[in-house]
Write a structure and sequence with these properties.
The complex is a heterotrimer of chains A (194), B (334) and C (449). Chain A has 194 residues and is mainly α. Chain A is 74% helix and 0% strand. Chain A contains six helices and no strands. In chain B, helix 5 links the parallel strand 6 and strand 7. Chain C has 449 residues and is mainly α. Classes of the chains: A mainly alpha (194), B alpha/beta (334), C mainly alpha (449). The interface between A and B is medium-sized, with 17 and 20 residues. The complex binds sodium ion (NA) (2 copies).
């Protein structure tokens, strides 16, 4: 299995960190808004506007990293039991589908960024924030996600063609275990140490 | 619907039973009748097709054919249309509606947005005079200082001049928030909306704040689609649209009447800010100037649109003695 | 529906099933299948616009801010060792009861699932640990499989619950009320599962009584082990604090759910800071953020895909046609209810709880409220049954993940272990239908509408 090129990994990580910082700021903004409103009758103007726009970035900037960690939900109950040739062909088909969906969606999202910029599109809240920067972040998140997903899928196909990775575990199990390890490895470590 | 030559998908943020959707339904029936079923309309209510802020874009790119476009969602796409949501300009919804239509024909700057976005204005839908529901009474705008009031659009900016905390919140959440004291009041709604959102039972005090007919919505169609239709269908759409304002005012009144009865039954106390207070409040507000400045910066001749708007409003007001349902409710004449 | 719409609908459904079958991302499958339908009914341009706008329009909604906040809160709490503390305390307190180790695993699963909101991840996390503990106490692996798989389903009812939040978002019902409404049924399910465990264990105890391998003796030995566990009572107390801050404030009407979630996330962060060594703090916070953002992205990709799919359903008229047809059929209301709930069970074959709710709730909710059922009660019931689908045969994702993680337990054995818990679930659902107050009494007590 070929490892993902370093820059792609680094870029994915950077986007996650940006989203993480935004999420912390979002938490603090909401808390400050409530506290201000209750203690000093003073809420933060446009807090909802800001939060909503920040959410869009928070929601999708982690796409590529989640793909690297194998988190996205997919189901392989049928696929696993097919003959080798068929599975290899399906891996190729998945790669091609990702390529098509990725190209169309990236192109489409690029269109929304350009349109938002040209129309000076803003939110409809009191602050009237420009939406193109967030839509630009969406574009970056999706393009990177598709590049990583296509890379993973292509490698899976190449490995299968070479007769590798066919005895792999079920993907569902893999995904669940990856998620488990990431969320809760405190438990797993602890039991292993005993 | 299989027999129709044109099946038009209508997207709206309003619910199926709101006065605005009822008006649009009556318009659609009229179109179907006039075209002998050649044109039919499929309704998608409550943003079930596309979101309120996407309505214009969706009509342009083919996700929908017809859309209800609220002025508070139109700042990016139909900037000049938002002139009609400036506060303190008129308290007459009928004059307001006629002005929205006339500007489309008489103000090239106002019209240009529609042409650029590829949508055609069919008819406006009235919202009515802005009402304010409160948990505690308020005699003057200054009494509102320090309160958290659910608001939206330019109404929020008016409230800021009286040191109110405007809270953004979807209309469906207001009832619960009023009950729990998360907000002390709400505005940016008209009398006709109150029953739909259960607010007739959660409004001990209803005030006419004097802001007037501050917001509205319009129904638009994809211009290319309209142009592709045979002339008889175009004429049918135009003819039905000419009845749009009448349908809208009728439906708004009947929804307002229901709300008025429910509020009265619930023991709501009605009041209005005095003319002097409203005049002073309007004086403090620089919203119209800011509106002109904001769009002038983007290259619009916004000042001309505002001048046209005020001139046509004055003209239409003199031709109409229409009384808003909120005022009529307070006077017991609804 | 027109002929063209029916053709498009069939194409979309077949496309979706094929994409799922060839192991394409579920979120992208929903999106792609929906877009094929939009091309058929409108135009390629409309389809591209639909797909391109879906990520923004499905996430630019203040009502959804609560999702990453709850996820972040849960992960901070786990990183701070609070779920572990709760697990240990449960092991200690429950150790003398029949099936103490299994009860503790159940509590542990409930806690992890409640905090992390992911049923399958909970199963994967606790499968090995719980199975070892339960088997060591003398029980069968079948019991272990049942406890872990069923325990994973507890999280969706016990707040915070992302699935209940999403239900509220897609049906426009009150999220605060839904979260509060999950508490009663969550507790009832725990009781039902605990009773199931104790009945199974007491039966085995009787069968093995007096033999050298007596279950009672082995349970006592395991209980003695549990009493030597180092207790982290403070951790347990902190867990209570987070629950009070994030759910108690909703109950008291002090905060909206989103505000409550932000307080919960901040409280969890502060607790993490207090409980982590300075040298490890930055790492722990960073790890938590990375995990929270990953889970958030996964959830929102499903939301974006479901957004396109439901746009197609609305456009084709399929949603309204289905809802109108069922409502105008005027069937007996409870028959419709049971049929609607039963439809969910096979969906657990290829969908997780979130996807199931995103697809099914917009259809089932209007049908069943049309038959006069209470909206909040319905929400809890639908979410409860959707989660049951993860453990019911022929395939349930929880069972699949369990069997994949604990290799020596085959799928067949695992399913046999789950059967008693499915029976318990059916009893719970029946009770919830007969005594709806179990769902509604907490939201009603809270004095909200
Ligand atoms: Na939960
Ligand atoms: Na199942």
């Amino acid at each position: 299995m070929r490892t993902l090129p370093g820059p792609l990994r680094a870029l994915s990580q950077t986007l996650v960190i940006v989203a993480g910082i935004l999420l912390i700021l979002l938490t603090l903004l909401t808390v400050a808004d409530v506290v201000g409103r209750n203690l000093w009758d003073q809420s933060i103007l446009g807090a909802v506007d800001i939060s909503t726009l920040a959410l869009v970035a928070i929601a999708f900037l982690g796409l590529a990293a989640a793909e690297i960690e194998g988190r996205h939900v997919s189901v392989d109950l049928l696929e696993m039991n097919l003959p080798t040739r068929a599975r290899t062909t399906l891996a190729l088909i998945r790669t091609l589908l990702l390529l098509i969906v990725g190209a169309v969606l990236s192109w489409g999202i690029l269109g929304t960024v350009v349109s938002a910029f040209e129309r000076s599109e803003t939110t409809n809240g009191i602050l009237r924030l420009a939406t193109w920067p967030v839509k630009g972040a969406l574009l970056a998140a999706f393009v990177l996600f598709f590049v990583v997903a296509i890379w993973n899928s292509l490698n899976e196909y190449l490995d299968m063609r070479d007769g590798k990775r066919l005895d792999d575990e079920s993907h569902i199990v893999h995904q669940a275990q990856a998620e488990a390890q990431l969320i809760t490895h405190t438990v797993i470590d602890r039991e292993e140490k005993k | 619907d299989d027999g129709a030559d044109y099946v038009l998908h209508y997207t709206t943020y309003s619910s199926a039973t709101s006065d605005q959707s009822r008006s649009a339904q009556r318009w659609a029936e009229e179109v179907e009748r006039l075209t002998d079923g050649g044109v039919s309309v499929v309704f998608h209510y409550s943003q079930s097709l596309v979101g309120a802020d996407e309505a214009v874009q969706a009509t342009l790119d083919g996700r929908a054919d017809l859309a209800q476009v609220g002025s508070i969602y139109a700042a990016s796409d139909l900037s000049m249309f938002t002139v009609i949501e400036l506060p303190f300009e008129t308290k007459n919804p009928q004059a307001h509606m006629n002005t929205i239509l006339r500007l489309y024909e008489e103000s090239p700057v106002y019209r240009e947005d529609f042409d650029r976005q590829g949508v055609r204005l069919l008819f406006p839908l009235p919202l009515g005079t802005i009402a304010m529901g409160l948990n505690e009474p308020a005699q003057t705008p200054d009494d509102l200082a320090g309160r958290s009031i659910r608001s939206g659009g330019l109404a929020s900016e008016v409230l800021l001049t009286s040191k109110v905390n405007p809270v953004a919140m979807t209309a469906t959440d207001i009832y619960e928030s009023m009950e729990r004291g998360i907000v002390d009041g709400y505005t940016a709604l008209a009398l006709a909306n109150l029953s739909t959102f259960g607010l007739t039972k959660a409004s001990p005090y209803v005030v006419d704040p004097g802001i007037g007919a501050y917001s509205s919505s319009i129904v638009v169609i994809n211009e290319d689609l309209y142009q592709s239709m045979p002339e008889e269908y175009q004429r049918a759409l135009d003819e039905a649209s000419r009845k749009g304002i009448e349908f809208g005012l009728e439906e708004m009144e009947s929804a307002g009447r229901i709300a008025c009865e429910e509020l009265t039954a619930a023991g709501t106390e009605f009041s209005s800010f005095s003319d002097a207070d409203v005049a002073a409040w309007a004086e403090k507000s620089t919203i119209a100037d800011e509106w002109v400045a904001r769009y002038a910066e983007r290259g619009y001749d916004a000042a001309s649109v505002l001048d046209d708007y005020r001139a046509i409003i004055a003209d239409e007001e003199s031709a109409s003695d229409y009384e808003d349902p909120l005022v009529a409710c307070m006077e017991g004449t609804l | 529906m027109t002929g063209a719409a029916i053709g498009a609908l069939l194409t979309v459904i077949i496309t979706f099933i094929v994409l799922i079958a060839i192991r394409f991302h579920v979120g992208l499958s929903l999106m792609l299948a929906g877009l094929v339908g939009v091309v058929m009914l409108r135009s390629t341009g409309a389809a591209i616009s639909t797909g391109a706008n879906a990520p923004f329009s499905s996430s630019a909604d203040y009502g959804l801010v609560i999702i990453p906040l709850f996820i972040l809160m849960g992960i901070f709490a786990v990183k701070a060792g609070l779920a572990q503390a709760g697990f240990d305390i449960a092991s200690r307190i429950l150790r003398r009861l029949p099936g103490g180790s299994a009860l503790a695993s159940l509590a542990g699963s409930g806690l992890f699932a409640a905090v992390t909101g992911s049923s399958v991840a909970t199963v994967a996390t606790l499968a090995r640990v719980s199975t070892d503990a339960i088997v060591k106490a003398g029980h069968s692996v079948k019991l272990a499989a049942g406890v872990v798989c069923a325990g994973g389903t507890l999280g969706v009812l016990i707040p915070p619950s992302i699935v209940l939040v999403l239900y509220g978002v897609v049906t426009e019902e009150s999220i605060g009320q839904l979260l509060l409404a999950g508490i009663g049924p969550g507790l009832l399910t725990i009781l039902a599962y605990a009773a199931t465990i104790m009945i199974l264990v007491v039966r085995t105890r009787r069968a093995t009584a007096g033999t050298e391998d007596s279950l009672l003796e082995r349970e006592r030995a395991a209980a003695d082990d549990a009493s030597r566990l180092q207790m982290d009572w403070l951790g347990g107390a902190f867990l209570g604090v987070i629950f009070a801050v994030s759910i108690g404030t909703i109950y008291l009407g002090i905060a909206t759910p989103t505000e409550a979630a932000s307080f919960g996330a901040l409280a969890a962060l502060i607790i993490l800071i207090v409980r982590t060594k300075m040298s490890q703090l930055l790492g722990a916070v960073k790890e938590s953020l990375v995990e929270a953002i990953g889970l958030t992205a996964m959830t929102f990709l499903l939301l974006a895909g479901a957004g396109v799919f439901t746009y197609f359903l609305a456009l084709s008229g399929a949603s309204t046609a289905l809802v109108d047809a069922v409502i105008s059929a005027e069937l007996p209301a409870y028959l419709v209810l049971i049929l609607c709930l039963a439809i969910l069970l096979p969906l657990g074959m290829f969908l997780d709880g979130i996807s199931m709710i995103l697809i099914a709730a917009p259809l089932l909710h209007p049908i069943l409220t049309g038959y006069g059922f209470d909206a909040i009660w319905l929400g809890v019931l639908i979410v409860k049954v959707a989660e049951m689908a993860l453990i019911t045969p022929p395939v349930g994702m929880n069972v699949f993940v369990y069997s994949g993680t604990v290799k020596e337990v085959g799928l067949g054995t695992a399913f046999r272990g789950v059967v008693p818990f499915i029976v318990a679930d059916i009893v719970v659902v029946a009770i919830l239908i007969l005594v709806p107050q179990i769902v509604t009494f907490i939201p009603n007590l809270s004095g909200t509408s």
